[in-house]
């Protein structure tokens, strides 16, 4: 049968679930009434089959290909096989098993296909099969060996691939990805799949290069010798060419315009072209499927002509050119001489077109239009049948566009219409025309009524064959009520009479039920034809919704029943017009029997009542007939669910293929229009009861090789009505599926109630035996659970069937957001719903990343959204709204296209690899989306980027997947290539200049800046150093698997996500094995979560939470580490986010290791242990940390001293000493870190580099490092991050470079963590910047000055002797700042010599000397007005202690400023070390102010004192309670640095005074003191009296020792 793509997937899935195709009940089920219909083929002959040889038959072939030897390969789609017609003409099955779908690789009949549809051959004779539903390319060698290229794993979005071509060397495959509107290219050696042309986001028709071109459902492909690829662009109705460079041009046809016109180039018209083939003369042949023709395009001229068939005239006739007919030609193959082979899909034949255009049927038997008797007649897709009271049958022969009449004797004639000629003409007999007549009904007078679907009309035919149109207008679809031609229909199908003789019509595409009176007046019973009319709403009138109702039936009380096909339900319309759902469940397709909504239908298409009121249903997509009782109980009465065929028989032995119309004739004989078999079947219904098994078969242990060995025997006893029972014994190996047994020497009685095994051997050990019992009805009863067969030789070995669970880590998996589908379907809960925890939904969740606050960000690829998951489980959509696009903007205004990866940058923004847009997007925490662009504003372009990661320096790393490179985006936007060679796929490690990447995917970056890459093209995990050097960390190139191990010994299977924690431990999600793996820095791979299969081919997917290796995943994808060391991953198939917590065994925690029952039935166990570093295994005994040492379960209490111990179990059998030793497990006990190397104090010159290193021990010995700093003078520790002078802030070694003076005195420490108990913190280390100096550059004091005791005296001290010094006494220079300034200051300088003061110089007016002016500028002293009365001296001082005294000339008073400047700062051997000034302290402007300037490149420790009570012995009117403030001038303003009222009186401070040479202060006095380390700059010390008091005060500023 030709399987439409719309239905194929559901059929495949459910066929896998069926038990040998039959419904099965428990052996303990009570007897229930059974009904079966015994079907025979009455009219026509099924054209589909799987026979080989000269009478070979096919089933919906949709692919053909030729090899160099002239062998013809056929994709026999409906049979799920690949057939071979050898050049000799013999037809055989090359691979696959007819009627058995699957995806198994193997040789010949051991292999399985799901839906083989398209073929291509290479130069070596290998065949490539596009297995559409498996989304895989299957390679078949000439010997029939089948292997799989899993293209869907390379491109998860692959959608309905519909064409294939292959290069002669077999190294390059081309696929038309119809659902994504692109043509893809597969490099076989590297398993790299790229887009050759088209854009996945957009359908269209534009010519152009690569992704600039557009297609609309590209289908068939053909490849010429020059590498040009030809494409049948089906829904554009055009033929396109793609050059090797990806340049797309349109050769023939006009996009969007279908038709049949021959012509040149754009003048030609096609209708859904499906396949292409090239001959040796440069002609391209086209299977113009929608027109049912084969066309020829001369490439040299562009001329298109119809080569064979007639447009819009489906049929199967042989003949030359236009005489021939085809029915949906689906595939072509051409020999060099122009001989063509056509897969005529709906005819299930292979046709040959010779170069002279003559068409012959080569293989198969086509349906037709032959009038004859019973099975000699031919029909084409009949959809309905009606029977009159005399037993005459009338057939709506849909595919032939005719109405056929069958006498009770089976004589078939054509009553009206002309075969193959569609139309709408009224008339008599063959003069009339129909267009796909779908429904037919006959009244008591012999008048026929026809639902003429393609014409949208209701037709009436008299017994004489006169055809008239009762209602509707041909070719005018609509939903109008009215009389006759005023009414409109849209593809009406099913018909029934109500009790008043009106027609009830299933108006299918209007989603309405209509009533037509005998006069042709049309009214609507229920439903509406609006856009919103499609649905499932019950109710009345136009509020009701249907989805493509196909059939109607009316019961004896006038209730209308509707086969609502799209909703998979039966609906009921009562006399009041109220619609309700009677059986089935909306949108839930299936084949389950049951009552009401418990039952399931696939696609109910035909309805009929029997004489007692039971409703029979043709469930077309299930290929079954169902009976529905008045109470709504649904039973399958004929056919086997999801198993198409044409076999006659009763109940499940009868096979049907897409049955549609039903009716009952005289004697309650059921007639069935078996549409896809092109036949009319009929038969009566019979009743019985299901078999009940009253005795189950028994099982024993059988010893092989002993004398008088007992032959295994199993007997089953059952009862049923009728009592004739059929037995079918089956066997299932330990790891395998149930298969039927045959009498073969090993087994006997396989079809009887007793099975024996005279040839039993140990090969059947651990098998299971069961029996299926039926009595010819649809229900099969199986024996309970099966019987386990143990076949053990007397000297059989003992062996374990498992190893102890790995104990290195305790892992727990929980689901934190989203809900997995209850039916375990892939993506069954995908949606874009925000919410908390399980209430949220994700749509194809891919990449995930965590920020420092505990929030995670997830990209939903298919929805094109960015989601945020907060720590409390709340999921919100941060950006995107489910519509693909590339728009920037805020939140839902933004658009993404298939984003697959996400990272959180060091700047706090989120970065998205917007895969299908080829862009990187920046998203702020507020949801503002922008596209990263270059300096000119052009967006940065990538080729399907599938990985992104961010380091601590602000760099982004992007997997430029289809360019085979990894690129780096610097913080300034500069893009560089980090690794990989553009356009070159490979696996070579090495420097950036030579290394190649296979298919770069997910990325992660560790604290040291090393990039970790998942290379899906090579199945490896690779590292990329900062310089671009590539190395393989784990996995073997091109080899898939799930083995743990070190480095190349490990295997991965299309890993999808990667993360690295702060310790440098890598985590990988292995998507196709549904596992989570852990990789240590030395490349050791360990599976930490997910169930490993117990045998090859078993995939343990699921959604179970729990302990690591007990949990299950379904395509785990993205993975990320949070700040606490936990893992978050996106579980793609389940649509959830899961959390993994991982830790070693804790001290005091009990860990149990359990061995399953070993084979060989041993009864003795002894656990053994191996100490670290030892080679001797020691027997264990209970006690201390251990219990259960002599049982199958050992319990160990975690202790530090047991860390690294290995354990294993030894077992033996007492009677023959057969023994076995299990595998081992290693116990890792978590031990918190202990610092073993402290960071050391380091001195380094300014501009140099300093390094601080820490080391620790603990278990696990993988540590996270967190360096912290403490600024000099601060008590707070702050975390460091890479940037500025710091590198390695997350590693064992912190590097500071370049070292600046500002870092002098900083302290550093490291927090070391392995996520066990408490982290360890190192001792601090101090950074000293050597060679730094600083000194006082200037000292000053401002205070009231006069004469005598009011003289302003500034004392200062030199260390190392005096030096050139500028001294000033300023009065008028203060005029801008102080109103009461001293108008004429006099400056006197005195030096302490011994115990006496001597004059060292004096000045009244400075005089404006140029030498002084230049010195003012050089030292930073403010300028003075030339000729002012200010005083200044420039002298080379030779002493140590000086005073500068400022008084008023003539006894005048006012505020004055005394200043001392070091005029030779370059001389570091001598420097100013102290300042003191004593004066009256007033209020306001009269407070005492001392200023100083620190010059140099290092901070300086300074003692500042404000003394009042300390002067008590020398001054009577001292300041009783001085208040001291220190201010710094910076950036145009003054900032308070420190202040003090009363000093602390501590001994440390007093000792500091003494060391600096300062006078003592009385403990507890009111004097004020500050001790500070000050950066170079300008400062003032201000002394005032607490409470505005006044008195004599002293300010002192000293360099601290």
Question: What are its keywords?
Answer:
about 1600 residues; mainly beta
Would you mind describing this structure in some detail?
This protein has 1601 residues and is an all-beta fold. The protein has four helices and 131 strands. The strands form 27 sheets. Strands 121-118-123-116-125-130-127-128 form an eight-stranded antiparallel β-sheet, with helices on one face. The chain has an eight-stranded antiparallel β-sheet with strand order 120-119-122-117-124-131-126-129, covered by helices on one side. Strands 1, 60, 63, 64, 66, 67 and 68 form a seven-stranded mixed β-sheet that branches. Strand 53 (624-628) and strand 54 (633-638) form a beta hairpin. The protein starts with a helix and ends with a strand. Residues 1-29 have low confidence and may be disordered.
Summary?
Helices cover 2% and strands 44% of the residues.
Q: How confident is the prediction overall: mean pLDDT?
A: 89
Q: Which residues form runs of ≥5 with pLDDT under 50?
A: 1-29
Helix run count: 4
The gyration radius over C-alpha positions equals 47 Å
Strand order of the largest sheet: 121-118-123-116-125-130-127-128
Classification by helices and strands? mainly beta
Beta content: 35-45%
Q: Give the total of beta strands.
A: 131
Distance between the termini: 101 Å
Percent of residues in helices: under 10%
Shape: elongated
The main sheet comes to:
8 strands, antiparallel
């Amino acid at each position: 049968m030709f399987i439409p793509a719309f239905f194929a997937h559901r059929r495949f899935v459910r066929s896998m679930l069926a038990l040998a195709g039959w419904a099965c009940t428990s052996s303990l089920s009570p007897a229930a009434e059974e009904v079966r219909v015994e079907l025979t083929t009455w009219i026509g002959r099924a054209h589909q089959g799987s026979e080989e040889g000269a009478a070979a038959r096919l089933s919906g072939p949709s692919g053909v290909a030729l090899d160099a030897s002239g062998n013809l390969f056929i994709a026999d789609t409906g049979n799920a096989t690949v057939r071979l017609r050898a050049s000799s003409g013999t037809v055989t099955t090359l691979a696959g098993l007819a009627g058995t779908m699957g995806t198994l690789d193997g040789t010949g009949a051991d292999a399985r296909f799901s839906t083989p549809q398209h073929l291509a051959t290479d130069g070596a004779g290998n065949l490539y099969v596009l297995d559409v539903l498996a989304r895989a390319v299957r390679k078949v060698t000439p010997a029939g060996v089948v292997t799989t290229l899993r293209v869907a794993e390379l491109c998860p979005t692959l959608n309905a691939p519909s064409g294939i071509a292959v290069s002669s060397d077999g190294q390059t495959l081309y696929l038309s990805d119809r659902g994504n509107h692109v043509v893809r290219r597969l490099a076989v050696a590297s398993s790299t799949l790229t887009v050759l042309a088209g854009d996945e986001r957009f359908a269209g028709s534009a010519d152009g290069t690569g992704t600039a071109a557009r297609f609309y459902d590209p289908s068939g492909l053909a490849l010429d010798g020059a590498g040009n690829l030809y494409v049948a662009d089906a829904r554009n109705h055009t033929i396109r060419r793609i050059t090797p460079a990806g340049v797309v041009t349109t050769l023939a046809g006009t996009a969007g315009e279908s038709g049949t016109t021959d012509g040149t180039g754009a003048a030609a018209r096609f209708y859904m072209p499906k396949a292409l083939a090239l001959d040796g003369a440069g002609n391209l042949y086209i299977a113009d499927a929608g027109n049912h023709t084969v066309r020829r395009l001369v490439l040299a001229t562009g001329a298109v002509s119809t080569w064979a068939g007639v447009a819009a005239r489906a049929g199967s006739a042989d003949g030359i050119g236009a005489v021939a007919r085809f029915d949906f030609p689906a595939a072509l193959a051409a020999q060099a001489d122009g001989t063509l082979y056509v897969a005529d899909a709906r005819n299930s034949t292979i046709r040959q077109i010779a170069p002279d255009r003559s068409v012959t049927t080569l293989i198969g038997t086509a349906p037709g239009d032959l009038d004859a008797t019973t099975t000699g007649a031919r029909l084409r897709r009949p959809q309905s049948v009606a029977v009159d009271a005399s037993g005459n049958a009338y057939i709506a022969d849909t595919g032939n566009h005719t109405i056929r009449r069958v006498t009770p004797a089976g004589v078939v004639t054509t009553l009206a219409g002309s075969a193959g000629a569609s139309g709408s003409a009224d008339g008599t007999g063959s003069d009339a025309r129909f267009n796909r007549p779908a429904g037919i009904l006959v009244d008591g007078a012999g008048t026929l009524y026809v639902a003429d679907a393609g014409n949208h009309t209701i037709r009436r035919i008299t017994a004489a064959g006169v055809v008239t149109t009762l209602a509707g207008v041909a070719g005018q679809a609509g939903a109008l009520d009215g009389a006759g031609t005023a009414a409109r229909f849209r593809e009406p199908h099913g018909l029934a009479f109500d009790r008043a003789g009106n027609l009830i019509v299933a108006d299918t595409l209007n989603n309405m039920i209509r009533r037509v009176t005998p006069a042709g007046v049309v009214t609507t019973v229920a439903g509406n034809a609006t856009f919103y009319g499609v649905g499932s709403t019950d109710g009345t009138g136009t509020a009701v919704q249907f989805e493509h109702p196909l059939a109607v039936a009316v019961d004896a009380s006038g209730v209308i029943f509707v086969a609502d096909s799209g909703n998979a339900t039966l609906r009921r319309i009562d006399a009041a017009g109220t619609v309700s759902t009677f059986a089935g469940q909306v949108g839930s397709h299936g084949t389950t029997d049951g009552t009401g909504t418990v039952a399931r239908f696939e696609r109910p298409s035909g309805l009929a009542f029997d004489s007692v009121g039971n409703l029979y249903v043709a469930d077309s997509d299930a290929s079954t007939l169902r009976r529905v009782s008045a109470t709504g109980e649904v039973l399958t009465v004929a056919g086997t669910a999801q198993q198409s065929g044409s076999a006659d028989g009763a109940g499940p032995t009868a096979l049907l293929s897409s049955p549609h119309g039903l009716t009952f004739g005289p004697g309650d004989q059921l007639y069935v229009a078996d549409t896809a078999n092109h036949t009319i079947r009929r038969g009566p219904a019979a009743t019985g009861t299901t078999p009940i098994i009253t005795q189950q078969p028994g099982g024993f242990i059988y010893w092989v090789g002993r004398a008088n060995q007992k032959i295994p025997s199993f007997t089953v006893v059952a009862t049923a009505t009728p009592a004739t029972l059929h037995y079918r014994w089956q066997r299932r190996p330990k790891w395998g599926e149930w298969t039927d047994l045959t009498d073969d020497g090993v087994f006997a009685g396989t079809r009887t109630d007793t099975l024996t095994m005279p040839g039993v051997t140990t090969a059947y050990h651990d098998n299971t035996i069961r029996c299926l019992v039926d009595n010819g009805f649809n229900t099969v009863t199986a024996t309970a659970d099966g019987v386990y067969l143990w076949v053990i030789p007397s000297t059989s070995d003992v062996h374990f069937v498992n190893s102890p669970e790995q104990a290195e880590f305790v892992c727990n998996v929980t689901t934190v957001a989203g809900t997995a589908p209850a039916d375990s379907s892939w993506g069954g809960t995908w949606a874009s719903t925000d919410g908390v925890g399980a209430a949220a939904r994700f749509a194809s969740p891919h990449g995930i990343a965590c920020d420092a606050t505990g929030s995670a960000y997830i990209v939903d690829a298919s929805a094109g959204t960015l989601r945020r998951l907060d720590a409390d489980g709340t999921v919100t959509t941060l950006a995107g709204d489910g519509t693909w696009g590339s728009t920037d903007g805020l939140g839902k205004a933004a658009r993404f296209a298939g984003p697959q990866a996400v990272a959180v940058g060091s700047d706090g923004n989120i970065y998205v690899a917007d895969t299908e847009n080829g862009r990187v997007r920046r998203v702020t925490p507020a949801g503002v989306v922008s596209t990263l662009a270059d300096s000119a504003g052009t967006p940065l372009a990538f080729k399907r980027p599938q990985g992104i990661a961010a380091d601590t320096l602000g760099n982004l790393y992007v997997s430029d997947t289809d360019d085979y490179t990894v690129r780096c985006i610097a913080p300034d936007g500069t893009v560089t290539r980090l690794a990989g060679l553009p356009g070159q796929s490979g696996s070579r490690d090495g420097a950036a200049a030579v290394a190649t990447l296979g298919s770069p995917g997910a990325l992660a970056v560790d604290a040291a800046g090393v990039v970790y890459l998942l290379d899906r093209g090579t199945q490896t995990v690779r590292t990329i150093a900062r310089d671009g050097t590539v190395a393989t960390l784990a996995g073997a190139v091109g080899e898939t698997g799930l083995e743990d191990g070190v480095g190349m010994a490990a295997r991965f299977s299309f890993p999808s996500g990667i993360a690295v924690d702060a310790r440098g431990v890598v985590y990988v999600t292995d998507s196709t094995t549904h596992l989570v793996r852990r990789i240590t820095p030395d490349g050791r791979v360990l599976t930490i979560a997910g169930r490993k299969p117990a045998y090859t081919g078993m995939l343990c997917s699921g959604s179970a939470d729990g302990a690591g290796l007990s949990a299950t995943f379904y395509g785990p994808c993205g993975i990320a580490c949070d700040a606490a060391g936990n893992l978050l991953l996106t579980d793609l198939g389940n649509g959830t986010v899961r959390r993994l917590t991982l830790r070693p065994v804790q001290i005091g925690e009990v860990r149990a290791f359990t061995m399953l029952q070993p084979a060989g039935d041993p009864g003795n166990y002894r656990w053994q242990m191996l100490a670290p570093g030892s080679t001797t295994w020691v027997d264990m005994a209970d006690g201390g940390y251990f219990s259960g040492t002599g049982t199958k379960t050992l319990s160990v209490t975690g202790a530090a001293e047991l860390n690294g111990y290995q354990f294993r179990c030894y077992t033996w059998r007492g009677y023959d000493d057969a023994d076995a030793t299990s595998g081992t497990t290693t116990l890792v006990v978590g031990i918190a870190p202990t610092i073993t190397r402290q960071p050391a104090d380091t001195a380094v010159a300014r501009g140099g580099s300093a390094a601080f290193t820490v080391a620790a021990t603990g278990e696990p010995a993988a540590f996270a490092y967190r360096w912290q700093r403490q600024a000099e003078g601060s008590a707070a520790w702050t975390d460091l991050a890479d940037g500025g002078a710091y590198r390695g802030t997350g590693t064992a070694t912190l590097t500071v470079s370049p070292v600046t003076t500002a870092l002098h005195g900083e302290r550093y420490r490291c927090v070391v963590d392995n996520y066990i108990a408490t982290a360890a913190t190192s001792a601090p280390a101090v950074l000293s910047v050597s060679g730094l100096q600083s000194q006082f550059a200037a000292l000053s004091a401002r205070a009231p000055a006069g004469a005598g005791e009011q003289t302003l005296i500034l004392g200062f001290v030199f260390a190392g002797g005096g030096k050139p010094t500028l001294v000033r006494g300023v009065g008028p220079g203060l005029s801008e700042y102080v109103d009461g300034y001293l108008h004429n200051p006099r400056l006197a300088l005195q030096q302490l010599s011994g115990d006496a003061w001597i004059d060292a110089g004096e000045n009244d007016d400075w005089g404006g000397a140029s030498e002084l002016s230049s010195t003012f500028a050089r030292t930073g002293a403010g300028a003075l007005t030339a000729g002012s009365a200010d005083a200044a001296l420039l002298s080379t001082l030779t002493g140590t202690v000086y005073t500068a005294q400022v008084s008023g000339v003539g006894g005048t008073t006012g505020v004055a400023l005394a200043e001392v400047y070091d005029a030779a700062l370059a001389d570091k051997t001598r420097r100013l070390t102290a300042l003191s000034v004593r004066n009256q302290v007033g209020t306001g402007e009269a407070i005492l102010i001392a200023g100083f300037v620190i010059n140099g490149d290092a901070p300086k420790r300074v003692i500042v004192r404000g003394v009042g009570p300390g002067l008590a012995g020398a001054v009577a009117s001292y300041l009783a309670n001085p208040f001291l403030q220190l201010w710094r001038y910076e950036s145009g303003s003054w900032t308070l640095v420190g202040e003090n009222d009363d000093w602390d009186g501590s001994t440390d401070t007093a000792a500091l005074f003494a060391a600096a040479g300062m006078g003592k202060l009385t403990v507890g006095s009111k004097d004020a003191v500050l001790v500070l380390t000050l950066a170079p700059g300008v400062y003032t010390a201000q002394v005032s009296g607490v409470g505005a008091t006044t008195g004599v005060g002293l300010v002192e500023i000293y360099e601290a020792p």
